[in-house]
Amino acid sequence: MNPSNAQLLQLAIATPLGAALIIACGLPKRFSTKLAAAAFTAPLLIALWLWSQFPAENAHQYAYLSTTYTGLAAFGISLKLGLNGIALPMFLLAAIVGLAAGLYALRSGAERLKLYLVLLLVMHGGLLGVFASVDIFFFYFFHELALIPTFIMVGIWGGRDRNYAAMKLTIYLTAGAMLSLLGLIALYVKSGANSFDLIELKDAVAAQALAGHTQNWIGGLLLLGFGTLVSLWPLHTWAPLGYGAAPSSAAMLHAGVLKKFGLYGLIQIAIPLIPLGLQHWAWKLALLAGIGNVLVVGFVTMAQRDLKQMLGYSSVMHMGYCFLGIAALSTIGTGGVVLLMVAHGLSVALLFLLATSIHHRTHTFDLSEMGGLAQKTPVLAAFFVAATMAGIGLPGFANFWGELTVFVALWKFSHALTAVAVAGVIISAVYGLRAAARVFFGPASEQLQRVTAQHPPADLDWKEKLPALILLAALLLFGFYPKAISQPVDQALNPAPVTLTAPAR
Amino acid sequence: MSTELLKAVAASNEWWALGPEIILACAALGLLVLELVTPKAQHRFIPHAAGMALAVVLAGVALNFGKIWDGEELFGGLIRLSMPGQVARVFFLLSSLLVCFLATVCLPRARVPRVEFYHLLLVVTAALMLLAQSNHFVMFFVALETVTIGFYILVSYYRERASSLEAGLKYLVLGALSSAILLFGIVLLYGAVGRVEAGGVVHTGFEFGTVLTFLRENPGNFLATAGALLVIGGVAFKIGAFPFQIWVPDVYQGAPTPVTAFLAVSSKAAGFAVLLLLVHGAFAPLAGVLVPVLSLLAAATIIFGNLSALTQRNTKRLMGLSGVAHAGYLLIGVVASFTVPWAAGAVWFYLFTYLLASMAVFGVMAYVAGPDDSGEELDHYARLARERPFLGAVLAVGVGSLAGIPPLAGFMGKLLLFVAAFHAQLYGLLAVAVVGVVISIFYYFGWIKAAWFEIWTPPAAGTDSPARPLPAGPKWVGVAALALLTFATVLLGFFQAPLSGWLLPR
Amino acid sequence: MIPLLAAAPAYGLPSYLFVSALLFAIGFFGVLLRKNTLVIYMCLELMLLASTLALVAFSKFNGTLDGNVFVFFILTIAAAEVAVGLAIIVALFRKRHTIQVEELNQLKH
């Protein structure tokens, strides 16, 4: 591999973290914003370059590998970075959403802006690190690095109930992370590799697979841990609350990217290493995800009156599709999940961004107090409708391909669950379109008229449009040219297909 | 006793092996002399002299780190230098240096004599170091008692303050109780082993080596097992393990902040140094008894420490009870070290991360506390991050590291312990530890919340309580010390080589 | 030879140990149950003396001298402990005018 590309990958992760350190050490505000803007942009440029250089035919192997020893080499822990066909789209997603969130944060004019930027930069660096880590210890480590700022940001800049929300978020996510850490340590010990290096773990498992019951309990630990992090029903209650309270940029990065950590972990780690364990839990997982996440949470979403809470619930619901795709245990399903993760990440980030922009104009998140905003802010309305369409999964947006592929895979797994999933699409169409209609069309409520009389709402300015445009462009690009993602993913999954014996039931 | 034997004993006296302890003891006496001969205006330099002595000895130990006389028994079997012993020396010296710094912050606020504090600090440090090198129960007991009696005085050092004296009395009663239990254990071991003649030399049950041989040859000897358990019980008091933890919250609260830090870090580490020394030395053959006992202790300690810390508002009690929980995690490492040898290194790694984080937090506590530091509540931290962002940041890093949040050093310590426990197949203990960690997030997070998240509290009507004065801003020494601790805590989270190359297998 | 001692029966090791264990138990429960600080303090000394008695007995019956030497260390330590302990108790009495344990409860939240 080209060594300079490996260094670029390291640079992409180091840039936001380094910038955060410099700003934290007391850089004046004027320079801080400029430095932060540069540090948010650089990873995307590097990600795009790495994407263009990616050797598609070898996507199942890691490209741009580099190893840095941190002093625990005896324990098989070293900072090993690299990208394969599954990691690459996620890395790109993190870079895109990170830039959008960063740009949006720069214009937000938040109190204590420097601290806000520092935390956001740390989060961004952590997210890039998650998807570039080949070492599963650092995979976890970077996840936590990105997670901690979330708690602090919710606590300091959060909206309503921020203290309760921050506390609940912290407890749930820490518990989930601890469980998944135990699962990862179990893999480390039980595989006999005595290394956290995913490549060595795969080799060890290929030489001798783990015993069936070991796979089962490790699978249970990982599903429970990752499930909490990805808001698997009924462990999802932190999500709407947390997203409802989180400041926009933190919500964008967390819901858009960080939450995918668990799914990504299942795909990159659990499927190759403990296929039988996953198979053991597949039906239970599918039922929880299908009935719980898609149907129950779907109906709950319909009942929401608060725009941000609704977005939080809808993101929980969409995670249900991802779990269903993983439970289908097929190459197609897994590939669909990766597509869906990228698409959902982009669309949910866009929706959170727009929701905050709406709030700036209406000073409320309550759907019943809104209406008629489209005449005053047509551009905002257009963006919001487009994002809603993307979220529902209409053709032309990346989500469509993800959901379609997941459904195809699911059909082979269970017809009934496919029907449930399709019903979910209708549910999401109902609440999505209804929210768009409430906010932008129809008569304005009295409160809103009073507010708009005092502060006449302006349409999106360029500083808001730019991040929104970046996200929307990515959505459309992957919608019309899904091959950009699907090709490396296919290449990564197909040469080493998931080998399974026939299901026991 | 024949002349040859005495000559042999004399030949084993390597005075340089005890150089650091001797220098510290001389420096301690020197401080008292210095107070006598110098004019009163110059007395403010005495803390610096104590700090200098500690720093010099620390440098000396670090430079001669590898020189341990090949692990030979010295002074007729009283002392044996070992690599863990050297690590312990560095640990105690570092900790005492930081306690010295805390004392320069706290003591001027109280109207108490100062020189004696530093004198006792040096004496206790020397005794701690001897304790970690001891190879003989008489040496062990005398060193331990020197430490304990020194701590009685230090805990009640604010003699004008009833809370400090009360804490001193409680520590005294329970400390003496545990010493008596430990002593009885030593006596039982001595009695059980009896008279052992090897090569014309008489050995007794006071020598670690003889106890080891005896236990190996007589498995299941009731008297010796009971003695060993009593000794472990006495040590469990030092580390504050359940059910010997009852003294912890009261004593931590009443003691002056530097002493609380000293207790929390050095005294606990001494307990673990001794525990590791014993369970891998003299008591190794008793693993069948010790593993279940220590496992039970660990589980109970973690659960008790975390649950009782949950409701605390007083920061010093919180540090004390959460420290109990940390002792529980460390006990898991000790249990694991029976089957996984490097777990002992992991315990030391954890102790070092605990040292860095605790000292950082105690440093912030020293600045936030007013003249009366026993009543410091979480509410006093409100607006800390806004008024003193530096102290707020140090607190966040320290508390975060104690909670075991990545990317801070404390997380790496916990990770290594967990990996060791996994290797040793201690699944039950792991489950307890994970529950404990999640509970601990709750109260540690509450502390960060108090300092960082602005909570608007309605001013109570009528009670126009005077606003708390702003926490004192640290001077440059304070800034340097706290920044260094914070930096080390963050660095060790990312890059463990400085410690791991030294404590763990490469 | 003093007649009284010569007439004394030769007690074995178990007798000494029994007395020692009894003293230790009295001291232990005294510390746990008594309310007066000074009495607690005496009970602590009793426990140390119980150990000393056992130590001397073992020393005699095992035929090793080390135990006798250790007794002197223990006595020295006990003396130091008493000195510090009584100083604390006196200082506390000056402040609080009580030496009853249940009244020393300032450090409860």
Structure write-up:
The complex is a heterotrimer of chains A (505), B (506) and C (109). By secondary structure, chain A is mainly alpha-helical. Chain A has helices spanning 3-24, 29-53, 87-108, 113-132, 136-157, 162-190, 198-207, 212-229, 238-245, 248-258, 260-273, 275-302, 307-327, 331-362, 373-376, 378-392, 398-413, 415-440, 446-454, 462-480, 483-493, and strands spanning 63-72, 77-83. Chain A has one domain (3-489). Chain A contains 21 helices and two strands. Chain B has one domain (3-455, 472-503). In chain B, the strands form two sheets. In chain B, strands 1-2 form a two-stranded antiparallel sheet. The model of chain B is unreliable at 458-466 (pLDDT under 50). Chain C is elongated, with a radius of gyration of 18 Å. Chain C is built from four helices and no strands. Chain C has 109 residues and is an all-alpha fold. Chain C has one domain (3-103): Helix Hairpins, CATH 1.10.287. Chain C is 76% helix and 0% strand. The chains are: A mainly alpha (505), B mainly alpha (506), C mainly alpha (109).
What count of domains describes the coordinates of chain C? 1
Shape of chain A: globular
State the separation between the terminal residues of chain C, measured CA to CA. 63 Å
Following the backbone from N to C, one meets helices and strands of chain C in this order, namely: HHHH
Radius of gyration of chain A: 22 Å
Poorly predicted regions of chain C are: none
